[in-house]
Amino acid sequence: MIVFPPLLIGLGLAVGTYGTLIGVGGAVVLLPALILLYPEASPSTLTSISLAIVFINALSGTIAYSHQRRIDHRTGALFALATVPGTVIGVWATQFLSRETFSLTFGIMLILFSVLLQFRPQKRLPQLFFSGSTTRTLVDARGETFSYSFNMPVGIVLSFAVGFLAGLLGIGGGIIHVPALIYLFSFPVHIATATSHFILVFTALTGSLTHAVSDVYSQTWQLLLWLAVGIIPGAQIGARLSQRVRGILIVRLLALALGVMGVRLLFVR
Hints:
- The protein is mainly alpha-helical.
- The chain is built from 10 helices and 2 strands; from the N terminus they run H-H-H-H-H-E-E-H-H-H-H-H.
- The chain has helices at 5-22, 27-37, 43-68, 73-93, 99-119, 152-169, 174-183, 189-212, 221-242, 247-266; strands at 134-139, 145-150.
- The protein has a two-stranded antiparallel sheet with strand order 1-2.
- Helix 3 packs parallel to helix 9, helix 4 (73-93) packs parallel to helix 6 and helix 5 runs antiparallel to helix 10.
């Protein structure tokens, strides 16, 4: 694969900043860009690169969010544990997915989530079986208090499904977890994005290690290196920006990213 250091560093910086700000790890921006830059690459290669970069981004962003004390560590750890087996199964399933099906599936999924966020930016879905007895109260570094309740068992089941899609599509899972935490489980937006980033560390690491077994990174390590040069500072910038950006704007930015990238993917199959 041809490596363009300045382009990859710039892409990494953008992915790190934007991905951390909206809590999705950056795959929503990175993966479509990789498809455009490397049209000959297989879905397995693309997802392996994406998951490795999401891991680096999530780790850097999680460190920043931990200093802000906006991560629900107890809930995040349980949800992360549930994503691990799903991710392994998803990575295994990529070998049966064609490039056209890969782009089509990913694009349609992004558009659907974009529509959901655009038309329900400030409303939660009817709670039904998503509400529950698990209650959390967090106080961040600025002294702001966040309280919310949700159904832990349902969240664990959903996290397993998120892990499967993360491994299958190389997306890390944040684009599903963030809307779910906000609209189904009533997490405050800033807690949802920070906790999602924490979960992504484990999901993306699992996917990356699973891909590493096939020795795929021996062919892409230079590309990963230059992307990481931009990703690491970008994640720190995104976390800092999150303290100054209103929750509703973060949701709008997430919806915009999903919609634009989803439509683009439908035309690059």
